[in-house]
Hints:
Elements: H1 3-15, H2 18-53, E1 60-65, H3 73-82, E2 86-101, E3 104-113, H4 115-120, E4 125-128, H5 133-138, E5 142-146, H6 147-154, E6 165-168, E7 171-179, E8 189-195, H7 196-204, E9 212-217, H8 223-237, H9 245-248, E10 249-253, H10 254-297, H11 299-307, H12 312-352, H13 365-391, H14 395-399
Amino acid sequence: MRARDLLYETWQALTANRGRSMLTILGIVIGIAAVISMTALIGGIQNTIVSSLGLNQSREIYISVSAGRSVTEGDLERIRLSVPGYELVTGTVSGTSTITQGKKSANASITGVDQGYFTTSSIKLAHGRFFSDAEMKAGGMVAIIDQNAVKDLFGDADVQVVGKTVKLGNDEYSIVGVSESSGFSMGSYETVYLPRKTATSRIIGSDASISQIIGYAKPNVDAEALAASTKTFLVSYFNVPADKADDEVTVMSMQSMVDQFNTVMSAFSLIMGAVAGISLLVGGIGIMNMMLTNVTERIREIGLRKALGARSADITRQFLLESIALCVCGGLLGILVGYLGAWGLALIVRAMRPSLASMSPAISPAAVLTAVGISVAIGVVFGYSPARRAARLDPVESLHYQ
Length: 402
């Protein structure tokens, strides 16, 4: 049978009962759409979180030492001198206070920073500026708050608050900048940045230990190797027992955090894709059921074709092509519905989580090609058995079938 005739017969067979064909296709459409929309949504959330957290800044290295060991500015200087490869090394101090504006107040997470912190961190300003060198050295009464704090204290995250004042404890601070919210909150605490000298003298205490060390690797330096050499130095420098090294000294490059985060999200995407893929299995069973019904209804037609010279291979190809055509049509419609569904889910996520307002679904060409491939595979796998059954029918018995 020529390919043109085979395609024509397939079209005639599928359009002879449009309602049944559309209902059968629907199972494949739902399955493909579910897989594409869920994986695209998870990919979009992953990309947004990576971007908002600054996880793409692979030169950053985060260092922490157990709370029982005091870290001073002198220790930071030793790291700078003893571990080559850093462009700069900075430290932060942390504490809590009450932030007040007018009649509104909230708990605040205070981070005391120096100028190098804004160089290494991924913090972006929505309004205003970072602290000046003079403010850092003098311990100026200035603060940077994030958009969540602006919303809670002033009623609207977009209101212009630069130049206004807030109170931390009993002291007034002038707001010089508003940082973009990362999408992750500190529970019920607002995020506030102060010059480190201000934080230690006014809120945390002058004897406060540096709570976190942040290093910024030089260009073309292997951040993973630098993190490893930093940990080796700190274990020796602080005389940490070998069996407690992993517990008391943590050094992690941002690249390793990226890799870990992507691994977790990929696993989650795989699980969600597998769950959504169950509907594909159901759709495949629907394809097989329809094709078996078609074979039963067309036994006399099969017998007549064989009597006129059709080979078993021709019958197999005809029914197999019908099955594949159903699945490919379902796959193409599923891609369209999945694309629209992914954007619909993205709009819902944006409405529920304003911090993910920039999130858009990540639909990759590989996912689309995979969807088409899965559609063809389902057509072959679930259509082969009915096709072979049709091909094996005896022509004489088929002609006498009522």
